[in-house]
Write a structure and sequence with these properties.
disordered C terminus, about 15% strand, 31 strands, elongated, 28 helices, eight-stranded mixed β-sheet, alpha/beta, five-stranded parallel β-sheet
Length: about 800
């Protein structure tokens, strides 16, 4: 293997517009298929078709991958061919009023039943009172009343006549019937009775006592007759009511004869009206008096209200299965709610105030929720799981399950649930829920994994064109020509950071397509071409790169010290990437190494002051492994060295600068200057093999922009791992500079290749005698390490305490913890 100087063709994979057969994307058919996500498409299709319990779907993937749009489109296609679910209504429960009944009806019949019951209550309020105003009713009622009065008269006459023969009479008083003496044809006063002879008073008292028993018998008989008469009157009212409403209920029962639950309910309505006919008579009488009617309405709602029907879910206008996307899955929005109204300062409710949630509306179809929104309301998440476990969706007050609600409320009958729930969110959220929640694993068994990228094949390049065609049609954008589509295909590879892949995060691609359409209009173009796409990209970069330009200006001013010419011992230009929102950029950073006598080992300054992350610390420890394996073959590695990122004031993370740190260390030990015109990126392992890193094109472009600002010399360039060549999708200006020989990109396999390029000296390989060739980098490093070891040993001679301390320091060198 040897150092590879990359040709312009290797710096990116271009898309030839000639491979497309259209002149405008308007010529392409609209394709509703999912693009580049065969795994996710199969998972969603399986989850929808699978009828077993718990086969709900969690769609995971990176933001902007088109997850939600894909789900909507996919479910819309499936739902259109699905069956329209039934309606659900709530009606009054005549046995347990606090537990309204749920009734299932064919789509459209729920609204029809509600209208029929509205008409029924209206007719009841008008026709029922009329039934009690007929002559037949009045005559029958009067006959029963007269018979009662006649029977009462006869019974009391049986007591009154004997009483009068004995000087007594029946007298009606406020406290009831009494037997009182009659003197001279008039009711005797107590004073008059007191003046009578004792014998006469005794006779009256005895006669009165005898007649009181007869009076008691008469009163008992009258009461029994009164009870019988009231029963006859009530039965009369029931018969009249039954006759008045019979045909109304019969009509409805005939209409809904195929729905046994409705027939049963209508029969209950019939019996309730008959049983409570007295209430309707009172309501009718009160309605004749405006004030009485108002007072009655305030005290108690119309008794006819309990015969209304609350249509909870109306699918009369539904075509196919419902697809409900719940954007705000609060407990009430998801599970429904029980509304209340204020009456006499108190909160009251009834079955007509039950409101459906999105779970009820999606019943028989699909419910789509963003997982993070659902989890923000813990009650919603728990309620959803409970509904899916039980296969039923109830409506309850929030907090009812935990006993927080203490006031009396309704307990509606739950509705059987047949719904596919689709949650969508990030991969980390999915795996967290899977690990922490056993219910989640049982209820969301299907994982639809949307990838961040897809293979760059001719088919997928054509799919990009179809995607752009759809965006133009849906959003009214200008259509693209072949060059414009080709430019977006190249952007897709850049976003994927791979010449052989395309980004599946279509949100970013769509944004640039929209901006390109705008700039095409500004340029007076009917179609969006590559020029408009490049203008959109350059304008977006200009809007976003102020911080990048400020940092570069500080380098040009010398505030941030980064050289791009000359050579310096122990100093290498590393490359870092900074992300600010949706914009990322690369910038060079000076990395320096100093070596000196001692046993401190390899000290990473950022690690010592806790300005580095774990991955960076791991990279530093790998350097120690490399050094030990390379140079401590015959003797212990005795070394004190410090590594640091100069002028770095934020935390450093990642191991992409590990090779640059190693080059700086080797340069310091070998006393060989490193070319400052070359910047370095790449990880390294303990065997000295260079490993790939991420965001390589940002790093190259960051160093290129600094060199271009200072003036390109032809000696400048960037050294990258050879595995990263496939990740290059560099800007056109960088590729042009390489083509003109003004800038270079090298790919290396090993540390030896890299150090040779940076220093111009051969790295060297051990010969048969085990030594490196003189003047090679490794020979210089080995000689320096031997010199440092001898100096360290001399400092410890004759001083046992120093030898002991040195040994302890060798066993536990600072910075190795």
């Amino acid at each position: 293997m040897s150092i590879i100087q990359l040709d312009p063709d290797q710096l990116g994979r271009r898309c030839d517009p000639a491979r497309f057969t259209f002149n405008s994307t308007a010529e392409l058919p609209l394709n509703p298929d999912i693009i580049g996500q065969p795994r996710a498409a199969r998972a969603i299709e399986f989850g929808i078709d699978m009828d077993g319990p718990g086969f709900n779907i969690f769609v995971l993937g990176p933001s902007g991958s088109g997850r939600v749009t894909t789900i909507k489109r996919f479910l819309a296609q499936r739902a259109a061919a699905g069956q329209v679910p039934h309606d659900w209504v709530y009606v009054h429960n005549f046995v347990q009023p606090r537990k309204p009944r749920a009734i299932c009806l064919k789509a459209g019949l729920g609204k029809a039943l509600a209208e029929d019951m509205n008409q029924l209550t209206f007719r009841l309020q008008t026709e029922l009172p009329r039934a009690f105003e007929t002559k037949e009713y009045e005559n029958t009622r009067a006959g029963i009343t007269r018979a009662l009065e006649q029977a009462r008269t006869e019974q009391f006459a049986k007591v009154d006549e004997p009483a009068r023969q004995k000087g007594l009479a029946l007298v009606q008083t406020p406290s009831g019937l009494l037997i009182a003496p009659i003197i001279d044809g008039q009711l005797a006063e107590p004073d008059t009775i007191a003046q009578l002879p004792a014998e006469q008073r005794q006779q009256l008292a005895a006669a009165r006592a005898e007649l009181e028993d007869a009076l008691s018998d008469a009163v008992r008989v009258v009461r029994e007759q009164d009870k019988v008469s009231r029963a006859k009157l009530e039965e009369l009212d029931r018969q009249v009511a039954a006759f008045a409403i019979g045909h109304m209920i019969d009509e409805l029962e005939l209409k809904y004869t195929q729905w046994p639950e409705v027939s049963e309910y209508l029969e209950e309505v019939r019996q309730d009206i008959i049983a409570h006919v007295a209430e309707f008579k009172v309501q009718a009488i009160a309605s004749e008096n405006e004030e009485g009617s108002a007072a009655l309405a305030i005290a108690d709602p119309s008794p006819f209200a309990r015969y209304l029907v609350n249509v909870l879910v109306d699918n009369s206008a539904q075509a196919g299965a419902p697809v409900v996307i719940e954007l705000n899955p609060t407990f009430g929005n998801l599970m429904g709610r029980i509304e209340h109204e204020v009456r006499f300062g108190g909160m009251v409710t009834d079955f007509t105030m039950l409101r459906a949630g999105s779970l009820h509306r999606a019943n028989g179809g699909y419910l789509v929720i963003r997982a993070r929104d659902l989890l923000e309301d813990g009650d919603s998440y728990e309620a959803l799981k409970r509904a899916l476990r039980n296969g039923a969706a109830g409506i309850e007050e929030r907090g009812a399950q935990t006993g927080v609600v203490s006031t009396m409320t309704l307990e509606p009958e739950p509705i059987p649930l047949d719904v596919k729930v689709v949650l969508w969110g990030g991969a980390s959220l999915y795996y967290s829920l899977y690990a922490a929640d056993e219910d989640f694993r049982k209820l969301f068994k299907v994982r639809a994994d949307f990838g961040a990228d897809m293979a760059r094949t001719p088919e997928n390049e054509a799919a990009y064109a179809s995607f752009i065609r759809a965006r133009c049609a849906e959003e009214g954008l200008r259509d693209f020509d072949a060059s414009g589509v080709a430019a977006l295909v190249e952007l897709g590879s850049r976003l994927a950071e791979d010449q052989n892949k395309l980004s599946a995060q279509f949100g970013d691609v769509a944004d640039i397509a929209r901006e390109a359409s705008y700039w095409a209009g500004q340029l007076g173009q009917a179609l969006v071409n590559a020029q408009a796409v490049q203008r959109a990209l350059s304008e977006w970069r200009y809007r976003s790169n102020q911080a990048e330009e400020e940092l570069r200006q500080q380098m040009l001013d010398g505030t941030l010290m980064v050289d791009t010419s000359g050579a310096v011992v122990g100093q290498v230009n590393g490359l870092t990437v900074t992300s600010l929102g949706d914009y990322a950029f690369g910038q060079p950073s000076r990395i320096t190494a100093r070596t000196f006598v001692g046993r401190a080992g390899l000290v990473a300054i950022e690690r010592e002051v806790r300005m580095s992350g774990r991955i960076h610390n791991k990279g530093v420890l790998i350097l120690q492994g490399y050094m030990g394996g390379k140079y401590a073959v015959e003797r212990p590695l005795t070394l004190s060295a410090s590594l640091g990122f100069e002028q770095l004031y934020s935390e450093v993370e990642g191991d992409s600068a590990a090779s640059a740190e190693l080059y700086a260390l080797l340069s310091s030990l070998a006393d060989l200057p490193v070319k400052q015109s070359i910047a370095v990126t790449g990880s390294v392992n303990q065997r000295g093999e260079i490993q790939p890193v991420g965001s390589v094109h940002y790093k190259i472009e960051g160093f290129f922009d600094l060199c271009a600002a200072r003036g390109l010399t032809g000696d400048q360039g960037v050294m990258i791992p050879h595995q990263n060549v496939r990740n290059l999708m560099l800007r056109a200006d960088v590729v042009q500079a390489v083509a003109e020989g003004k800038f270079n990109v090298w790919a290396v396999h090993t540390v030896d290749e890299g150090i040779e390029l940076l220093t111009g000296a051969p790295a060297g390989e051990r010969e048969t005698d085990g030594r490196y060739p003189p003047e090679s980098v490794h020979a210089r490093v080995e000689a320096k390490l031997k010199q440092l070891a001898e100096c360290t040993e001399k400092k410890g001679e004759g001083k046992p305490e120093n030898n002991k301390a040195a040994a302890e320091q060798a066993d536990n060198p600072p910075g190795n913890g």
